[in-house]
Amino acid sequence: MGQGSCATAPPAPYRAGGGRSPRHTMGVLTAALCLACALALGCAHPLTQRKPEAAGGGHPHGAEPPSNDTDLAQLCTDESSFDAVTLSENGTMLFFRGAEVWESSRGGGQLHVRPLATSWPELGGPVDAALRLYRQQHPQEHQSLYLFQGEQVWAYAGGQLRPGFPRRVEDEFPGVPGGVDAAVECHPEECGGETILFFKGDTVYSFDLALGVTKSRTWLELGPCDAALRWLERYYCLRGTHFQRFDPLTGKVPPGYPRDLRDYFIPCPERGHGTGNTSWGDTGDRCSGTPFQALLSDDTGRIYAFRGGLSFRLDSWQDGHHAWPLGQTWPGLEGEVDAAFAWDGRTYLIQGSQVSIFLSEQGHRRVQGYPRALQEELGVPSPDAAFTCPGSAHLYLITGNHVRLVDLMQMPRQAGEPVLLPHDHVDGAMCTKDGVFLFHGPSYHQYPSVAQLLGAQQPAPAQSIATHFFHCPQ
């Protein structure tokens, strides 16, 4: 069935109760039809589908073990390097050191330690490097966990050793020597093809998975790596307790590095970028039910949630739902985001009476001359929430229980007349191919289209943000 077709008619607008006058109802419906003529979304279905968890990715032998504060405190004071770091098949982060592996919890707020032999009994010793393979056209290999040990490589899928492994590194990756220091998968959108980067001393070996060809180079600016990691389209080289972000094509390192792992990737007590991981409290816990101040679905399909100076990625469950300080994704941005939307390859982040614009496809680089006054940019004061729908230049700004339309193609921009909503207040809003989502407190309300939102006389059923977007237990 095509994306634009529907097997059954869409749900009828929510009209039970309300008590609005016929004249008011006709006015709202007329406005709804005018607003929706250029933008009508098809049948709605759940935004996020929870995929079955691999038997051996994440915690392969049952529920997460309890966190040990003593072990974590020791890890946070240890200046030793990690042997390898990668993401599991389920999006949790794995830190390998000696005969143990540390694994992040689903929300990234805790680390749990266990012996390597518990999950990978075949290894019989520490690993040199690890990666989660990206090979979308080869499902038998895609998302497999590769562990390197001396001259051999081990591949696991669903927690089970794949047939034919272990193999010699040079047999699996011709031209790549054994005994590598680090390895990281490189996705086509960032490297132009499905590639793996291997690090050994000062040499970087780039292996093209499609061609089976290896090219070597030296990245003097980056230097050697003890471990390497790809997380949320960015690449990191770890050395000791510090890390650098680097360009996977050139090895160039942006300003501001190196940084300390314990301020970003490890939830160490009394540490953390800005306010510190421990002081994030419920704000940094995706399952806490604390309201989100803004949500955003950008032109590339990435979905972000903003809360208290932190952001979460919602669309990439295999990278884990971790909190991250705003400035890490949007350089130079501090404070809290009140509303957000995307249009024409740009992300608009509203803070109070100002708006900053970032280019979505260029590492979220801020457009020169911003932030600017919101009134000057959009012709409106600060809203409670904002959203645009895919492929549309119509911006919807929500304040209190009203929504106003701004045509982003029109200059100067002006907001239309307010239209009443079936909600007294919302914290955030976004629109995707699955419909319009309004967020309030720990819940969200989904409408199949803008027209059905504007025609509704009572809110759509409330659903749990934590359960449906973050896969938290009910």
How would you characterize this protein structure?
- With 474 residues, the chain is mostly beta strands.
- 13% of the residues lie in helices and 32% in strands.
- It contains 10 helices and 34 strands.
- Strands 5, 6, 7, 8 and 9 form a 5-stranded antiparallel β-sheet that branches. Strands 22, 23, 24, 25 and 26 form a 5-stranded antiparallel β-sheet that branches.
- A hairpin with a 2-residue loop joins β15 and β16 (242-246).
- It is elongated and about 70 Å long.
Compact description:
This protein is mainly beta and 474 residues long.
Write the layout of secondary structure elements.
Layout: H1 22-36, H2 69-77, E1 84-87, E2 93-97, E3 100-104, E4 111-115, H3 116-119, E5 129-132, E6 145-149, E7 152-157, E8 160-161, E9 167-168, H4 169-172, E10 182-186, H5 188-191, E11 195-200, E12 203-208, E13 213-218, E14 227-231, E15 234-239, E16 242-246, E17 259-260, H6 277-280, E18 294-297, E19 303-307, E20 310-313, E21 323-325, H7 326-329, E22 339-343, E23 346-351, E24 354-359, E25 365-366, E26 372-373, H8 374-378, E27 385-388, E28 394-399, E29 402-407, E30 419-420, E31 428-432, E32 435-440, E33 443-447, H9 450-455, E34 462-464, H10 465-470
Antiparallel strand pairs: 1-2, 2-3, 3-4, 5-6, 6-7, 7-8, 7-9, 10-11, 11-12, 12-13, 14-15, 15-16, 16-17, 18-19, 19-20, 20-21, 22-23, 23-24, 24-25, 24-26, 27-28, 28-29, 29-30, 31-32, 32-33, 33-34
